[in-house]
Fold each of these.
Amino acid sequence: MDRLIIFDTTLRDGEQSPGAAMTREEKLRIAKQLERLRVDVIEAGFAAASVGDFDAVRSIAGAVRDSIVCSLARANEDDIARAAEALLGAKAKRIHTFIATSPLHMEKKLKMTPEQVLEHARRAVRLARRHADDVEFSAEDASRSELDFLCRVLEAAIAEGATTINIPDTVGYAVPEQYGRLLGTLRERIPNSDRAIWSVHCHNDLGMAVANSLAGVLNGVRQIECTINGLGERAGNTSLEEIVMAVKTRRDVFDLEVRVDTTQIVPSSKLVSNITGFPVQPNKAVVGANAFAHASGIHQDGVLKARQTYEIMRAEDVGWIANRIVLGKLSGRNAFRQRVQELGIPIESDEELAAAFARFKDLADRKAEIFDEDIQALFSDEAVVPHNEHFRLVSLSQRSETGSRPHARVLFKMGARQIDSQSDGNGPVDATFKAIESVIESGSELLLYSVNAITSGTEAQGEVTVRLGRAGRIVNGVGSDPDIVAASAKAYINALNKLYTTVERLNPQIALAP
Ligand code: KIV
Ligand code: ZN
């Protein structure tokens, strides 16, 4: 049977979402999870964007063995050399080079003539092939490009040795029928088209990224570029979980094999959401909390009699696990280690295990039943002390009573100093944030505050997401705790730590020259 290649770009295009910037360690954790998910290609980053991006691509290239590791590179010598250098340690590597081909992008963004763009594309693929046998070429904004010119560029890229040709719908403008036809036409008209694998890369601005990608598949495409939870710039990218489950569930239509281990979909979704601070909407297909919940009596009755009446997929096949009490206060370090391993959480050293076990004991003192999801939260960004830690919560007390103004007292570390700060507020969370802000004076704006329960029941831990914005920069912070005011304080401090860590980097789509 024919195979569909799953190319995951969570760590590159996904990371371009405002507030989704990740540290090298976070990217490494996600890359290891993507390998466990068995995606074919991991786009680990854009090596030339910054020193941090280069390091992240290099670490992932050294750590991943079962997926191809890829770096993006603009169509110029420096970017390609940087990508090649970062990928040196990879077992299987790909260089992904791109240049825009639409009249608008060529004239306004690149300030280049079509002939210059054609020459850059040709040269970029030639250079990339000196470093890797596996080279992907993307014609940025392909869906708004002029057909004859697009055919010339792609034919030249294949002639120079591009092994994958990607047709991005960069601004999410395409509609399925037309986009599918474009792919069919390109494959038909370009004389050497059979020498490359055809790929789609769709953005979700009109909510059609998944439909457009699948229209491509029906027209001979054999690679889909996508992200976990559909993370990505603006409205995001094609969502990996929806693509994989559509192709698996509708085998009658697509007739394609996918290598992905679907039981790793939900753990991947949770990890990415937790690290980036982008919550998953409850009604999101496949990975939303309600995706398999049946509230209406008629549906519940039907599902109990015969599951297929209202379910086309099985929750356990995509990695939903029933809330299981796995450990408690009396559990020892070995039982903890074993469960962590079963959940696929990588532990690099004895010190890391000891620190996680201490967090577990602390939680077990406050919460009688510890579920798998609680263990996963113990390894979240905020729980594992981040590298660039400027502030850390020490303790929090707050008082709220009907009819009186809530008050919070927060003890936190600012570098080596311990700060004791108090404030009133409209509610306990407001008082807590004001107490922190009155000392730090970040001047940031609170753009989003959301609380979700990690498991069900009133005993569950609350998981809070806080989004802060300052001078055009957006960061997300996440915190979890059985006490939601404490979870809020942790999330706020987690966001501030990110705000005070400056990451200078280029965005490939807005950087001017190729
Ligand atoms: O959306 C886009 O065009 C891209 C390319 C760089 C592949 O992300
Ligand atoms: Zn993109």
Amino acid sequence: MAFKRVGVMTGGGDCSGLNAVIRGITRAAIIQHGASVIGIEDGYDGLIFDRHQELTVRSTRDILPWGGTILGTTNKGNPFEYKEFDESGQIVTHDYSKKAIKNFQRLMLDCLFVIGGDGTLQIAHQLNELGVPVMGIPKTIDNDLEGTDYTFGFQTAVQVASDALDRLQTTGRSHQRIMILEVMGRTAGWIALEAGIAGGAHIILIPEIPYQLDKILDKIKVREAGGSPFSVIVVAEGAREVDGEMITSEAATTRLQAVAQLGGVGDYLARNISRRTDLEVRCTVLGHTQRGGTPNSFDRILGTRLGAFAVQAAAEGKFGNMVALRTPNLELVSLATLSGKVRHVPDSSQLIQCAEAIGISLGR
Ligand code: F6P
């Protein structure tokens, strides 16, 4: 099936490598198929409110190393349940899906490439069910999407976190302190686990394994007794104590937001460790530095491959799928099969076995 005009959009939280995908799609669609490419701006908002720009080989020429997304994004703006404020400041919900579909048709697009996480891809599936030919490209720094081995953006985030750990090692050792690094990872601990191994952390705490403070203190004491009165801890923002709750940051939570903002587990740990030891404790929160900035080469390559492969699949009319990495190949996975479940770090993970084998404590 030949196509003449395709749309591309990014939805949900940004991550490094989005522009590599946009560029890959644009170049493959133009070079292989002579198509024109329309960039939909600000996620589904651009489809609903008709905001777009033409993408060309020239306009995407320099974007490969850029962080963020040249198209803009939002993690609100579900066209089926669009929440906004009315004049009296109350939140109202509208179904703008028909409006979005009408704009898609008015733009005379043959396909919509949707680059996003589980929420964005589920909306893409709903649109597909209503007749919009979509092709999904999965992304999240958390690396917790089902159906794909790795998401682009993840390896860059791991690099940022392990670079930070390298720095915390030297200052922690100099001052004989406990250094805590809080990284992203709402419900899956992939970033903490991989960065912790790469950065030589002594304790790694992930959402999948609720931690016991006593076990953390034991590890710190053993290190101290062995002549290392400093320790480096990496904790995923969604980690929690056995019988405890995830810690949310109310200050960052707004009324239109569907999910609570996490944050504060690093400080919580710092307070509790310093109450129980004589060592000084310091906490660093990496936050959105893990999402911004230039993608590493792995994410540039993966993003470019996914873009080009998505175009090839669309040209074959294989809509309603997402492109996925099944190492070493790319494959198609039906959007209908995605359950929205998070791909957690399994307890049987060889990464966990490796961490524990080399003496890293997981707080259990
Ligand atoms: O899902 C990706 C993610 O980076 C999470 O790790 C984090 O909790 C969340 O997004 C932060 O979202 P926001 O950009 O809305 O603060």
